[in-house]
């Protein structure tokens, strides 16, 4: 898997909990505290080891950590912007999730995002099916969708409990599309703005 | 290759189909459309185009707002455009922005010769979006504008990340290289770097380069300093010796620490025995000046064996090293603190 996933976990731990937490997790999982290179590939087992160590150090269930990672990721400005290209409002955004793995591949071949499928259940109720190479992507998506709801100013209920076989389910109830004011988003960045980090 | 029917598929046997499109409907499908009458006056335009050229352009000639850059004929008008022709225009007020599109003559319009033009931003889409403050709603859902912007931004992020990675790897490579080639105590090049430099000098000489001298220097009485004053004193001496060697040599010469208290020098030419002897004498005199460690003087000297690689002598690195070594041995035997130049 591309290092960008491990790098995201690393960045989340150090910016959300502090460098000392990251260093402890790194030590427990036998990873160089300098961490990961986003553009290099690493063994998938390293990701498992990192998450195991994070669970132990933070004394927090894995699903909760993964949800926080999803939310944190969506709030990093470069990622928030890329996700906002999904649509003008939250409804559009939800339906753009089907295309998210394709967009990910377009940006970075080998990224390995999970397969996503949005189904409409009833008025305002949706289910996102998440099928990833390793379990846990459902929780990441739940966190990401919650954070993006705040960004779009939408009021939603998100529940990431369901799961059948390799497919995790996230249910979304869209209560109010324009509950609060959306955060500002310009389609184009100001000229000359270069950003240095995906995550 | 299958050619598309330019008229598009139509139900066979159907009577001539007619569509009635209002500017409002057109504007939703094609936010950058332009409707011209036969004299080129703007009859209607899409909302995004109106944002760019201003709705006061309605009723005026298109030529006041658009410069035609590419189309058959001289002018954008029915007489110069065949149906379906690709055109390119520049905004008169903002010449940096090009749009491209398709112009078709409207059949069955009230006025014959009326034109419908559908425009789109080309590669300057990002700049146009920024400059005119466009949003998702300014583009038709069928357009790939948003995908284009997404891709441009995502690729920039990936590229930045890759460039940063390349920079980090390059720094690590340089660091590893310099660590592999230098002596950590004195910072001088090490044996490996010296061997490579000697190899280069020999090869250059074989190709007709200048003569050079190879000096093998061994400190005298260094063991006593180490034994009497400790290794820290010895290290101080070695660092000072390295400084003196660096000061006494010129740019282009080479000084390396190749062992505990052994140094190798390559002096670039042209050079002869007399110059080597003078250089060695000056060097030894400076090295014999006491070096103070913790207020106590450390006194060393140096024995040197030298050999000159001269033009046409057919210099071989191994033989030169052996000659310098035996010359050094003779200096030691003759009472130290001196230089012997091996006669070729």
TrEMBL record, chain A:
Entries under SUPFAM superfamilies matching the protein: Ligand-binding domain in the NO signalling and Golgi transport
Recorded GO MF terms: heme binding
Matching InterPro entries: H-NOX_domain_sf, Heme_NO-bd, NO_sig/Golgi_transp_ligand-bd
Positions of the Heme NO-binding domain: 3-153
Name of protein: Heme-NO-binding protein
From TrEMBL, chain B:
GO molecular function, one term: catalytic activity
Occurrences of domain GGDEF (ranges): 210-344
Keyword Coiled coil belongs to the record: yes
Keyword Metal-binding: no
Domain of life: Bacteria
Alphabetized InterPro entries for the sequence: DGC-Regulatory_Protein, GGDEF_dom, HNOB_dom_associated_sf, Nucleotide_cyclase, Rev_trsase/Diguanyl_cyclase
Entry-linked CDD domains: GGDEF
Coiled-coil residue windows: 152-182
SMART domains: GGDEF
Alphabetical keyword list: Coiled coil
PANTHER family: DIGUANYLATE CYCLASE DGCT-RELATED
Protein name: Diguanylate cyclase (GGDEF)-like protein
């Amino acid at each position: 898997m591309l290092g960008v996933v491990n790098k995201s976990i690393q960045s989340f731990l150090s910016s959300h909990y502090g460098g000392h937490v990251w260093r402890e997790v790194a030590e427990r999982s036998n990873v160089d505290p300098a961490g990961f290179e986003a553009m290099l590939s690493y063994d998938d087992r390293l990701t498992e080891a990192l998450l195991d160590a994070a669970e132990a150090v933070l004394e927090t269930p894995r699903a909760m950590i993964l949800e926080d990672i999803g939310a944190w990721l969506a709030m990093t400005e470069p990622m928030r912007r890329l996700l906002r290209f999904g649509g003008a409002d939250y409804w559009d955004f939800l339906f753009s999730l089907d295309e998210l793995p394709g967009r990910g591949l377009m940006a970075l071949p080998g990224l390995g995002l999970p397969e996503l499928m949005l189904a409409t259940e009833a008025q305002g109720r949706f289910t996102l099916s998440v099928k990833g190479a390793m379990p846990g992507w459902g929780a990441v998506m739940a966190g990401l969708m919650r954070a993006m709801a705040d960004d779009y100013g939408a009021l939603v209920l998100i529940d990431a409990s369901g799961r059948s076989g390799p497919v995790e389910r996230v249910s979304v109830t869209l209560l109010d599309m324009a509950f609060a004011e959306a955060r500002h988003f310009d389609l184009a960045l100001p000229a000359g703005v270069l950003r240095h980090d995906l995550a | 290759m299958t050619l598309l029917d330019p008229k598009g598929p139509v139900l066979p046997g159907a009577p001539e189909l007619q569509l009635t499109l209002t500017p409002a409907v057109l504007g939703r499908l094609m936010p950058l459309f332009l409707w011209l009458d036969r004299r080129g006056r703007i009859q209607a335009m899409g909302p995004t185009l109106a944002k760019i050229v201003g709705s006061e352009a309605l009723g005026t000639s298109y030529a006041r707002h658009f410069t035609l850059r590419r189309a058959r004929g001289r002018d954008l008008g029915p007489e110069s455009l065949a149906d379906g022709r690709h055109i390119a225009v520049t905004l008169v007020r903002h010449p940096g922005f090009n749009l491209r599109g398709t112009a078709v003559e409207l059949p069955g319009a009230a006025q014959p010769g009326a034109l419908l033009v559908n425009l789109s931003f080309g590669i300057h889409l990002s700049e146009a979006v920024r400059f005119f403050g466009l949003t998702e709603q300014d583009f038709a859902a069928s357009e790939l504008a948003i995908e284009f912007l997404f891709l441009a931004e995502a690729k920039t992020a990936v590229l930045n990340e890759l460039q940063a990675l390349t920079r980090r790897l390059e720094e690590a490579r340089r660091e590893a290289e310099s660590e592999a080639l230098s002596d950590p105590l004195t910072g001088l090049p090490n044996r490996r770097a010296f061997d490579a430099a000697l190899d280069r000098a020999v090869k250059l000489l074989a190709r007709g380069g200048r003569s050079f001298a190879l000096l093998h220097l061994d400190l005298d009485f260094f063991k006593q300093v180490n034994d009497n004053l400790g290794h820290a004193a010895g290290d101080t001496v070695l660092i000072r010796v390295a400084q003196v060697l660096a000061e006494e040599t010129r740019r282009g010469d080479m000084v390396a620490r190749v062992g505990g208290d052994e140094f190798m020098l390559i002096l670039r030419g042209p050079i002869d025995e007399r110059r080597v002897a003078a250089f060695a004498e000056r060097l030894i005199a400076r090295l014999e000046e006491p070096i103070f460690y913790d207020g106590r003087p450390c006194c060393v000297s140096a024995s040197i064996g030298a050999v000159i690689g001269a033009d046409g002598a057919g210099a071989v690195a191994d033989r030169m090293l052996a000659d310098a070594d035996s010359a050094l041995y003779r200096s030691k035997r003759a009472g130290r603190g001196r230089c012997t130049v091996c006669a070729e």
